[in-house]
Each structure stands twice: as structure tokens, then as C-alpha cells.
Automatic annotation (TrEMBL):
Signal peptide: none annotated. GO terms for molecular function: DNA-binding transcription factor activity; sequence-specific DNA binding. The keyword Transcription applies. The keyword Aminoacyl-tRNA synthetase does not apply. This is Transcriptional regulator, AraC family. It comes from Streptococcus parasanguinis (strain ATCC 15912 / DSM 6778 / CIP 104372 / LMG 14537). Keywords: DNA-binding, Transcription, Transcription regulation. It comes from the Bacteria. Residues 90-188 form the HTH araC/xylS-type domain. InterPro entries: Homeodomain-like_sf, HTH_AraC, HTH_AraC-typ_CS, Tscrpt_reg_AraC-type_HTH.
Length: 197
């Protein structure tokens, strides 16, 4: 892991120097940086979906080279602090990201990591400022949002696909995190998208 991080920093440094020396077109520069960030984040499964789209948009919207570099350094700094966290917490986040649609419990994960579940829960809270359940719900709702917009699946089907076994609870969590029901969310975003076209 540490070797990979060092390699990333060296590659960013090389990319900056190359751009300053060769001064390619702004569009090409943005393309290079976007590709760099996507490669890094994909390698470590750090950002996906909407979060990745936000990063790409910010790089694309940067008005100057220094603004672009500043933003990229800020993103990499967030990324590095994420990976410098406790190894056990990083493992939990990876499990949530990969297996959110399965039946996950802190107890099962702690057994797999050979660590006390109460202690692991405390570590997660300290490192992420959220509980295991909050992190799992956030990941599931993010996946549900993507399915609501990219498929015609029923809300009930989506509920089960992202790991919930109770539709009522899914609605409750979705409303808490998004401020609206899944049905309203789908209609609003689809309507806004249709108006933009």
C-alpha cells in the first residue's frame, strides 16, 4: 500500500512537470488529470458513481491550471488520509463498498478480522465519525439512487437488490438520508433531467 501511494505522488509530480514544460492545450491537460484521478481512485476503489462524477466535473470546470492542481492535491490529500486510517477500519469500508447488498453485520466482520466487535465499532466511529450501520446505510442508499435513475426496476426490487429485507425500513432510511421518498427522488431527478435536454 505504502509503495503504491509513493508511486502516485511521484506520478503526479511528473505529470505537473510535463505539463509545465510542454504546455499542452487546456482540454488535454484536464483530460490527463481526470484520467490520472480515475486510475488512482479505481485502483483503490476509493470513489465511485456520483462522487467520481463530482470530481471529474470540478477538474473540468477549473478555470486555471493552478486551480486544477490545487483541487487535485486536495482530493489526493483526502484520499491519502482515508488510506492512512486504521487498517481494520479500512477493511470494514472495503467490505461495505464491495458487499453492501449482502447481509452484513459488525459482529460477522469483526470475527473475520479477529477483533472485538465493540472495539471495532469504536474504531469505526473514531476514524469516520459514523457508526457501522450509518456507513452501510449510506452505501446502500447511494446504490439505490443509481438504480432508481438507471433502471425501471420497482422500488421494492431495488430495496432488495441493495441489501434491505424490509421495504418500510428502506423507505425510512432513504427519506432520512435524501429528504424525500424513493419515488419522489426518481420523479424529481428524471423531471429535472428532461428539462435540461
Amino acid at each position: 500500500m505504502q509503495g503504491n501511494i509513493q508511486q502516485i505522488l511521484e506520478e503526479l509530480d511528473w505529470l505537473e512537470k510535463m505539463i509545465l514544460e510542454k504546455t499542452p492545450k487546456v482540454s488535454l491537460t484536464k483530460q490527463l488529470f481526470i484520467q490520472f484521478l480515475m486510475d488512482v481512485f479505481h485502483l483503490f476503489e476509493y470513489l465511485q458513481g456520483d462522487d467520481l462524477a463530482d470530481v471529474v466535473k470540478k477538474v473540468h470546470d477549473a478555470a486555471t491550471f493552478s486551480e486544477m492542481i490545487g483541487f487535485i492535491q486536495e482530493e489526493l490529500s483526502r484520499f491519502l488520509s482515508h488510506y492512512r486510517m486504521n487498517e481494520n477500519v479500512a477493511s470494514v469500508l472495503q467490505v461495505i463498498s464491495r458487499d453492501y447488498q449482502k447481509e452484513l453485520s459488525l459482529k460477522d466482520i469483526s470475527q473475520a478480522l479477529f477483533i472485538n466487535p465493540v472495539y471495532l465499532g469504536q474504531l469505526i466511529k473514531r476514524e469516520t465519525n459514523a457508526t457501522f450501520a450509518e456507513l452501510l446505510n449510506k452505501q446502500r442508499i447511494k446504490a439505490a439512487q443509481q438504480l432508481l435513475l438507471s433502471t425501471n426496476d420497482s422500488i421494492e426490487d431495488i430495496c432488495y437488490k441493495v441489501g434491505y429485507s424490509n421495504v418500510g425500513y428502506f423507505y425510512k432510511v432513504f427519506r432520512k438520508l435524501c429528504g424525500k421518498s424513493p419515488k419522489t427522488y426518481r420523479l424529481q431527478v428524471m423531471t429535472e433531467h428532461a428539462e435540461d435536454e
